[in-house]
Amino acid sequence: MMKGGTKELDNIIRPVAAELAAVKSNYAHQLKWQSEPIRGIGRYLSKAHGKFFRPALVLLSAKLGEGDMEKAVSTGVAIELIHAASLVHDDIIDEAVLRRSQRTINSKWGNAVSVIAGDYLLARAFDMVSKLDEPRIMTVFSRTAARMCEGELAQLANAYNFDVTEDDYLDIIKKKSAYLISDCCAVGGMLGRLSEDKINRLTAYGLYLGVAFQITDDCLDLAGKESQLGKSVWQDMEKGKLTLPIIFLLKNAGRKNRMSVVELITSGGKSSHRILREKALSSGAISRSKSIASDYVRMAKKKLADSDGMLKKTFCDIADYVLERNN
């Protein structure tokens, strides 16, 4: 079994296997669009889906209580649509050509169609959430949609800002991706009719988990292989987006070495990327970044209440998976 791979995650989230199958089926149904080119994009997304990591968190959180699992399934589908929309928009901004081992939507259909496709996914998602008759959940996702845009804009504003700090980076990744993972746990808890204390614990767990997830992702983007990850690598550096390993590399470099790193980032290309990867590995920038991700995982686990019972191990295993995954 591939460590950190899909099969391992499938084993971890087995307690919600039946409900997750319903999410996948409903998600595929939501992508059966009638007119071209949107129909072709729907078919593409059906084939290029991810691990359904975020919907699984909704389902597992809901199962901690005795809530409406049918609503949890619908919420999981909506979240996957929101996540898919964010990836479509990210690929446009990054000019990426590979996503989940397939050509990106923007490389197949162009940017104009891709922007509208991403917006359409968001519209479908919010339509689903509005039909849940759960105003609190609608409020949660409306807020996070705004945060995701704020995070993307902040990242773009800091492109090639070689003085960006660790705190700046953490603020950006929380808004861009971690809050959505946090919301998956929170709304699951709401649908499970858990106490406010447990919902708050799940919300914090999800936020710490989301930060660890993104730091690990950024380490993989720098040190991983495109064939293994199934997506374009080094996209952040190509656009001057400084991730945590690069921030540490710049911070700990002497004046001469710092200028060399800056030049490598601005010049771009495979040769520069290879040298940057070697520097990040040899300097300990990647290992330090992974250590911080581990700290966030530890904080996430501490938020799990003792009374969470059998599913507590599942949430702990998910946290470990986030660190160990290789794609």
Quickly describe the structure:
The protein has 327 residues and is mainly α. The chain has helices at 6-12, 17-30, 38-47, 53-63, 69-94, 105-109, 111-130, 135-157, 166-191, 196-223, 226-229, 235-238, 244-252, 255-267, 270-283, 285-302, 311-324; strands spanning 98-99, 102-103.
At CATH level 3, the topology is Farnesyl Diphosphate Synthase
The gyration radius over C-alpha positions equals 20 Å
Distance between the termini: 14 Å
Largest sheet, if any?
Answer: 2 strands, antiparallel
Q: Order of strands side by side in the largest beta sheet? A: 1-2
Q: List segments where confidence is low: pLDDT < 50 over at least 5 consecutive residues.
A: none
CATH architecture level-2 label: Orthogonal Bundle
Instruction: Identify the overall geometry.
Output: globular
- CATH homology superfamily name: Farnesyl Diphosphate Synthase
Number of strands: 2
Structurally, how many domains make up the residues? 1
The helix/strand series, from N terminus to C terminus, equals: HHHHHEEHHHHHHHHHHHH
Measured by DSSP, the beta-strand proportion falls in under 5%
Tell me the helix content: over 70%
Structural class: mainly alpha
Overall CATH class: Mainly Alpha
- What is the mean predicted local confidence, pLDDT? 89
Tally of alpha and pi helices: 17
Overview of this protein structure:
The chain is mostly helical. The chain has one domain (6-324): Farnesyl Diphosphate Synthase, CATH 1.10.600.10. 75% of the residues lie in helices and 1% in strands. The protein contains 17 helices and two strands. It has a two-stranded antiparallel ribbon with strand order 1-2. The model has no long low-confidence stretch (mean pLDDT 89).
